[in-house]
Amino acid sequence: MMNKLLGKTVKKVTLISAVLAIIFALAIVLTAILGINYGKSLENANTLTVKVNNFYFNDETKLSAVESVCEMELDKLGINYEQKGEMSGDESEIVYYFDEEVNLTDAKTALQTAFADKTKDGGEFDGAFISVTANSEVLQLYIPTSYFVRAGVAVLVFAVLAFGYAWIRYGINGGAVTGVSALLGGVMSASVLLATRVPFTASTLYIIAFSSLISTVVAMFTLNKLRMVKKAEGNEAYTAETIASGVAVKETLALLVSVGVALVLVLALGTTAVRWFAVSALIALVVSTAIGLLFAPSMYLPLQTAKQKRLDGQTKYGYKGAKKAEKVEQKQEKEQAEEVVGE
After folding, report:
1. Which residue, among 271, 278, 275, 281, has the nearest Cα to 96 in the 3D structure?
2. Per-residue DSSP letters for 185-249?
3. Measured between alpha carbons, how far is 41 from 112 in angstroms, rounded to an integer?
4. Are 174 and 166 in contact (CB under 8 A)?
5. Residue 241: which pLDDT band, with cuts at 50, 70 and 90?
6. H or E stretch including 119?
7. Which DSSP letter does residue 317 get?
8. How far is 122 from 130, CA to CA, in rounded Å?
9. How far apart are CA 251 and CA 328, in angstroms?
10. What is the pLDDT, as a whole number, of residue 271?
11. Could you tell me what percent of the chain has a pLDDT over 90?
12. How far lies 62's CA from each of 54, 87, 94, 128, in Å?
């Protein structure tokens, strides 16, 4: 059943490409009109800022220990933060964002007490200067352009590396399919997330970069299986049926289910911000998997068909344009043979 379905989609590279182009265009139009949805439910927020001096900030293990104390104290009070931000500089600021209705007086007191005990002489954090402040503020509801540029460059670089690796392993057509799949995985995941208006955060950029990896892995699953199928069948030309039978459906579904279950657990147990992260990741997972499962094989078929036509047109001298030279040699060989027979 699945092979029949794939046998049809493999022949629809133009249709699939058109659908992807429409989704991409829709994302651009909606974003241009409505802007990016940065999750405005947290526009007004209460913040809890824990500032740690440079001595501790430069030690990642110690800074993680400070974060653990913060979150343990918040858990004791039953207070869940919506987002967490970290800024580097001469001092490290760990900023916890809460809904504007959450009262942070008890949380501030609890953290100040905990750190006063741990930073005293001989304490766990001896030598650290840690301050705790609580404020109300309006969040910065945009992501700097440089973040988007970095994410775009990361996806592009990964696509180039995927193309190079697959070219070496599977040939130029395999490289092209893998590279384009990697690029489309990131681009289309971003497009769907923007078009569906899911709250967009800096973490979403990591999801987009991860989508490129998923598309690449799924495409390479299929290229690996196709190579085994061709070895078993011999050197016959690629057909839609051949490629459909070589699509790594089981491996792809196993990857989809394993990652998807983990994200569902995060969705069920996380805070609001974490849940939106899980929703975004699930959407991107489905989109990037579809790219590797449906688009990659459909792109591979016309590339292999064109390659086969070139091979069919080859002669010992090259391509069809060299057939004249071949006929001249054949004529000379025939004349030589006749002379031998005549003697």
Report:
1. 271
2. HHHHHHHHHHHTT----HHHHHHHHHHHHHHHHHHHHHHHHHHHHHHHH-SPPP-HHHHHHHS-H
3. 29
4. yes
5. confident
6. none
7. T
8. 15
9. 54
10. 62
11. 23
12. 11, 16, 13, 10
Please name the residues in contact with 313: beta carbons below 8 A apart, sequence gap of 6 or more. Answer: 319, 320
Strand, helix or coil for residue 40: helix
Mean pLDDT of the chain: 80
Q: How far apart are CA 295 and CA 297, in angstroms?
A: 6
**Highest mean pLDDT out of 12-26, 43-57, 272-286:** 12-26
Q: Per-residue confidence at 324, pLDDT binned at 50, 70, 90?
A: low
SS (H, E, C) 151-198: HHHHHHHHHHHHHHHHHHHHCHHHHHHHHHHHHHHHHHHHHHHHHCCC
Which positions ≥6 away from 229 have C-beta within 8 Å?
242, 245, 246
Neighbours of 165 (CB within 10 A): 16
In angstroms, the CA 260 to CA 233 distance is 35
Task: Quote the CA–CA distance of 65 and 60 in Å, as a whole number.
Answer: 9
Residue 290 parent element (H or E): helix 272-290
pLDDT digit string, tens, across residues 16-36: 899 999 999 999 999 899 888
User: From residue 288, how far is each of 68, 187, 265, 292 by CA, in Å?
Assistant: 34, 9, 20, 6
The answer, yes or no, to whether residue 70 has pLDDT greater than 60, is yes
Nearest to 289 by CA among 240, 253, 261, 263: 253
CA distances from 165 to 158, 169, 171, 215 (A): 10, 6, 9, 15
Q: Which domains does the chain have, with CATH numbers?
A: 2-35+143-309 (1.20.1640.10), 43-138 (3.30.70.260)
Which of 38-42, 152-156, 227-231 tops mean pLDDT?
152-156
Helix then strand then coil, in percent of the chain rounded to 5, is 70, 10, 20
Among 36-40, 61-65, 235-239, 264-268, the least confident range: 235-239
